[in-house]
Amino acid sequence: MNFDFTDDQQAIKRTARDLLADRFKPDTVRELAEAERYDEVHWREIAELGWAGIFVDEQHGGQGLGMVELAILAEELGYAVAPLPFLANAAAGIALQHAGSDAQRERWLPGIASGAQRGAAGLMRDGVAPLVPDADSASAIVLFENGAATVLEPSECEIAPIPSIDQTRRYARVTPRAGAGELLEGDAGPALDRIATLVGAEIVGVIQRTLEMAVEYARDRQQFGRPIGAYQGVSHRCADMLREVESSRSTVLWAAWAADSEPETLPLAAAMAKAQASDSGWNVPASALQVLGGIGFTWEHDLHFFLKRAKVDGALFGSAAEHRERVAELSGLGTSAATAV
Amino acid sequence: MDLTLSPSEQAFRDELRDWVGQNHPGEEPTGDEAAWEFRSAWQRKLHAQGYAGLSWPEEFGGRGATLIEQAIFGEEMARAKAPSPANILGLVMGGPVVIAHGSEEQKRRYLEPILSAEEIWCQGFSEPESGSDLASLKTRAVKSNGEWIVTGQKVWTTFAHHAKWCMLVARTDPDAPKHKGLTYFLMDMEQDEIQVRPLRQITGEAEFNELFIEEARIPDENVVGGVGNGWAVAITTLMHERAGLGAASAASVKIALGQLIELAQERGVDGDPVVRQKIASLLIEAEALRLNAWRGLTQIMKTGIPGPEGSLPKLQWSAVNQGLTELAVAIQGEEGLTRDSEWTYRFLRARANSIEGGTTEILKNIIAERVLGLPRLR
């Protein structure tokens, strides 16, 4: 039993932390978010580092690493709240890698791995995918519905930009034309579980950062003659935030590990991880805002970029309530009498 | 990362599973004396196999098990619903303190009877006016003619009526700052100057006791770790958190959650979306508790220092156990509130979980100060 990263995994984490801290200083994030755009130089750089295809097999131009390595990168990208089309591209890549036919992999994975032809993915609700990150710049769009996945070209869908609260990323509503696209041949379930885990990993990074913001502020900010972190109303809130961050991290790492090493555990682990991370993705930044008080409510403070990113991530690929319903189903409670809330 | 057991860990688990399968003593009998004899017999069985002092070094009759093995042991015993050994406080607190701070003579005298359950230990720390603020305790020990005369009151003393030895922390220097004037003693419980009164609790049973100590005697050689060092010695006891505890508590709430699911099915509410959401939340919290506990162990094994996740299992466990017993009672509606039900007992007993062994509030103070580095309140 060993929860530790290997030396290689630790190196990935360190490299990502350092590089992203340098490239995505708060002013850069703010500038890109306010302009609602990416800097393609950033994307090319991380694609050249092999991040875009870290989990794609080597024969399709990837690094052939696993879900744990991808989760490590996703956490660091979340920590930096990096404005990049990374998540959407990785989600499409996971779908094609794990549910695509040989021909479908051949067709799409090299572009996704190299970052030259990006992918995007989303969850359909009644024939429409209401919130798909980076669909507007994707060459391949994978849509999940009722346990199946379809890959489409942009010309086969109607792509309407959505002004999401998260300005660090682009979002769109995607409506596929009836009968358009190609069904992925494999089982879409394990791919969806991996994507849920990926989003959970990004949330872990975002909320880790907001916890740090809150703690730093609670140490420095003086009221009534002492740092506010000395008051239990504040310090206990911070302890609760730590519990949420660490529980999210533990469940996400478990799901990522299961994806690579114990696939029979993946459905339950992924559902638990995404439920936990989706909830904590709101609770932790919202608590950080309360600790920061008035300043945390301003546009001028960076907290809101993190809060909004984690909130939107919480809704992507299944809400906390939907994943809890799945946990109930997988834990011997049968199927629900009603549709989940 | 490898979240499976290594071959040697697996072999250890299989050995335990086999052994407990063949040696499980069955249901605990009712009645204090019968239950006590049952737990003593269980401990003797454990000891014969070297499991009683699992974490103790081999030279003191233990097995020198790693933290992971201790956690596996805790998990397996919880899984098998094995009884708790009679001398649990001696095994997890008293013995480790004597090993860490005791003299050679004390090690020779005290350790073996702890393992064999021949001498039972209890803990005299808390007082009516010193709960979370333990260092403010007032029980006095005064030296006179080569021995110590002790007067004071202790409370929440589990097993005091069975105990031969009490791990007693008393004030030996009233003029020193509160953490400095304390001494750790081993007090013989077999003297008339100590009165043990059962303390009836919310469940109706008397698991704990109060001690009224009026000029009890302790020979000087029963000081552990030196006069004035009581706080440091007591803290080692408290820090000697059973490594298997987090994993064991996760295993036992998992069993309880299985029973809760059965209850929901029996009552026909397993399709109710609200019940399903609540049960799923508890299942997730229990899993997070298990994973945080194991992650914490990995961290200690690697660096010797607990990581932030290691401070969480106790408060997570109390929240899950309270939550699941509350839901079990709620599912039963009006019928859930009768005195003769097992769930009712567990529901009431669980209220202590967020108090015993460090209140949730104190644990959050510790996390805030030691893990997050927030300023101290005091």
Task: Report on this structure.
- The complex is a heterodimer of chains A (341) and B (378).
- Chain A is 57% helix and 11% strand.
- Chain A is α+β, with helices and mostly antiparallel strands.
- Chain A has a domain of 146 residues: Butyryl-CoA Dehydrogenase, subunit A, domain 3.
- In chain A, strand 3 and strand 4 form a beta hairpin.
- In chain A, helix 5 runs antiparallel to helix 7.
- The two termini of chain A are 37 Å apart.
- With 378 residues, chain B is α+β, with helices and mostly antiparallel strands.
- Chain B folds into 3 domains: 80 residues, Butyryl-Coa Dehydrogenase, subunit A, domain 1, CATH 1.10.540; 111 residues, Butyryl-CoA Dehydrogenase, subunit A, domain 2 (Beta Barrel); 129 residues, Up-down Bundle (Butyryl-CoA Dehydrogenase, subunit A, domain 3), CATH 1.20.140.10.
- In chain B, the strands form 2 sheets. In chain B, strands 1-4-5-8 form a 4-stranded mixed β-sheet. In chain B, strands 2-3-7-6 form a 4-stranded antiparallel β-sheet, with no helix packed on it.
- Chain B is globular and about 70 Å long.
- The model of chain B has no long low-confidence stretch (mean pLDDT 93).
- At the A-B interface, helix 7, strand 9, helix 8, helix 9 and helix 11 of A face helix 7, helix 8 and helix 11 of B.
